[in-house]
Amino acid sequence: MSDAGSGLDAFVRAWAREIIGTSYVPMTRAQTVDFLRGRADLLVGSLTAETFDAGAGYAVGTTLARADFTAPEALGRTIALMKARFLADVGLSTAVPTDADSAAEADRRLAALIGALAEGFARAVRDRTLDAQDDMRRAALRAKAAAERAVRDSEARVLHAALHDQLTGLPNRALFTQELARTLAAPPAPRLAVCFVGLDRFKLINGTFGPAVGDRVLVLVAEQLRALADEHDCLVARIGGDEFAFLVPDTTCTDDALKFADRALRRIAEPVCLDGRDVPLSASAGVLERSADGGDPEDVMRAVGVTLQWAKADGRARCAQFDPDRNTGDVARYALSAAMPAGLRNDEFVLFYQPLVELVSGQPVGMEALARWRHPVRGLLSPNEFIGLAEDSGLIVGLGLRLLEKACRQAEAWRWRGPGAPFVSVNLAVQQIRDPGLVAQVADVLDRVGLPPELLQLEITESAVMSIDDHSLGTLRALRRLGVRLVIDDFGTGYANLSYLCDLPVDGLKLAATFMQGLDDDPDCKRSALLDAMVAVGHRVGLSVTAEGVETPAQADRLRRLGCDLAQGWLFGRPVPPEELFS
Ligand code: C2E
Ligand code: CA
Ligand code: CA
After folding, report:
1. Fewest Cβ atoms nearer than 10 Å: which of 153, 366, 422, 435?
2. Which ligand is nearest to the CA of 550?
3. pTM
4. Angle at 58 (CA atoms; ends 57, 63), nearest 5 degrees
């Protein structure tokens, strides 16, 4: 060590060697050497200062740690190196005799510097650890807040998706029902209205223009209805494929609600042009306006849904208003319809018989079989109460076949009473005629029961005849080939083109009871003239003619004079159970 400068350099290089690699420090070797050189200069300055201050040691310890030399080895090796050679390298060692006092002072100062360096280092490392912990704590808090926000956002997104319609962005049925429940629980006004709007024949639009156009129509309609809802400060939702709902929270009367619904229908009916094509649109509405407090929202939704169906059933493009009586009737009919299959299984459907009398002889030559339902709770039900329901549900086909067999067994039983046994006349519903299995079923019944086919007559209403297609016409011909007689029931009520009488394979007409009205009071009235003509028309095309609804001897007289063949009505006997006949 020739001089303090080069000695210090050697110390600095040695120092760098010792501490590089003890921790990860983002400095090159040269930078490290530079950095340590600065620290070493400080230490030297302090050792040689006139008045000594160990603060330089503290500062060096601190900067070491702050420069990321934080490993305990960095401190340990620094101290060891300083003790071993610092004084010698900088020319202050006792080994280099200057004067003993100053050498001792240098030792003392070095010890103090080392102590302060260790303290500065320790303090800085501790501060850094605390800072790092603090940073970590803060980062953790930030991450937690971000995560919570993300969860909240995604929950909000999921909730929004669950309560809104994807296509139109409108609230959906769930949200609408929620809002309705809230309004019913805490009504803002004394009365409210719920209005459902359904597009008419939307399936046809989808089918004609394609589902993409269908979707665009729905979006357009949604926009129109949203604008209307905004104007009236009420809620609109899409509650089904082509159905929308309004909650009008402050109506004063039903008229209010109907006017509102009408406005919605008129908006929808405005012409829509998509891709240069006119898409005709109309809609129907169901409206329920009521006092706002209380009630089950689901009940309200159901009632308005039913009301919308009324509007559609009544001809579409109109508003219907909820009617509790009509609803009660619907509910009762639905219950009755639902009870029918069990009624069929339990053999609750029976036949009453009403005589068909030959006007010339006054003899009963046939019996019309008329259905009755011995309902376990409601008692004896007339066919007007359940045949329509059976037609709607399709059960009429099974029921009709069961009744046909019953009637044939009854006719077969009469046959055993002796000669001149009456034929039985059974009513057929239009679905039965369309059923491809009918001919085989009739043949099978006749065969099993052993009834000659000429003792079976089948009645088909004129309105059913009007809807007959080629296939059903084939069915009628095949029935006739079996030897069964066919008559047109309620003739004169179906407004048919009379030319069909020439083409249909039928044997007779049953004139509707309406033609009997008025005959008593005025035999020359127009109705009477019509009756004359009907009987004549029937006979001219080779058909037998039966008059229905004959209640008085005067009517029977008149019919006899007209040459009408058979008559049926209260005058000759009401429909009764078979055991009451011939008694
Ligand atoms: P319909 O075939 O025209 O039957 C005649 C209806 O007129 C019967 O009513 C009968 O009770 C009633 N009637 C008979 N004489 C008189 C009279 O002098 N004056 C008045 N005002 N009415 C009279 P019902 O039994 O209630 O049957 C009603 C309708 O139900 C029948 O009309 C028929 O269309 C249908 N129906 C009855 N049974 C069956 C069945 O088994 N199958 C099918 N598909 N329909 C049936
Ligand atoms: Ca009939
Ligand atoms: Ca009839």
Report:
1. 153
2. 1
3. 0.67
4. 100
